[in-house]
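ok so I'm stuck.
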Amino acid sequence: MTSRERVRRVLDHRSADKIAVDFGGTAVTGIHCLIVEKLREHYGLERRPVKILDSFQMLGVIDDDLKEVLQTDVVGVYGQRDIFGVLQGERWKEVKFGWGQTVLLPEDFRMTESNGDRFIHPSGDTSVPPSGVMPSSGYFFNAIERQGELDDNDLHVEDNLEEFQPLSDQDLDYWEKTIRRAAAGDRAVMASFPGTALGDVALVPAMHLRAPKGIRGVTEWYLSTVMRTDYIHRMFERQVEIALGNLARLNARVGDLVDAVYICGTDFGTQDSQFCSGETFDELWLPYYKKMNDWIHANTRWKTFKHSCGAMLPLIPNMIEAGFDILNPVQISAKDMDPKILKERFGDKLTFWGGGVDTQMVLSQGTPQQVARQVEEQCHILGENGGFVFNTVHNIQANTPLENVVAMIETLRKLRV
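replied:
not stuck anymore, here's the structure
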């Protein structure tokens, strides 16, 4: 059974020959560049600077030789530009960061420094204020909000749609070329198409725009979901209209070469509760998610991927009603996120993509033995009768003990024999 066949079977809630695995297929199932470098050294792979896949989170590119070690079944396809608007081209440069690692970043990636902190500017334009900062002791960038003073009498939906536009022919050419290259192998293809994220707070600050307008502060955004619901409805309506047009054009180009699409990373859960009630979700978000998911299911064979951290149990039925096929990261450490209950109640409707090991406590602070035990338990619980793709609960962070990451990998390899 090929990796693509394996992933397709578990997405159809059928048993496969092995547990399906993803590392690096999305920006929420990746590995920090420092751990990528350490893994390459540990497994005796060629030593070379790690390319950065996601500069915001400093996720490393997982090259083919490391993919073989990790036995990943998924290949991710991303846009031409990163979250800061920097073109991910063929030309790369070496940059050394505060933790001592030299990595490869796109040539147009430009930073300024102050007191040891590093600042990234939109689209590499250092003539405008920075949109992200990496503290001197940090391992990734944080967004810098550039929210101007809001005047509700002069607030226009178009201001929050600047980054949601119809794809150009050049964009479509890029996606087709990149997806065809990814699909030429035997791994399943996960595409992170642009323009489908409804209110993802990682994107609200629009770190790639030189002078973003509209609602661009995280706090202001959350307040707006209560105080400016008419505005949010109008924005979502236009965003989905544009997204559906783009999806139709993408489907005409790539069709069945894609297996799953990353729709949205908006978090609805906290550690022990939810950001909104089910009624609020149904009124403000569900109609728009459902419109996109219904179109995808009616016109393609793609499965739709929803990322949401936290205590999601009360909202999972709403996510299913909205038409999502996949839930990630399956935060098993959050309140009521018991994997047995999740599998029993929703295992025939949702694929759990993640939840393989808890990154907050077990992987980051446990022993290798505890890691191995939890990996075995989670694969046994969530992997029964398909509907499970192994990944950690969100990205593997820079300060995770290498021996714990290796314990996870080796346990997976034994389970997949």
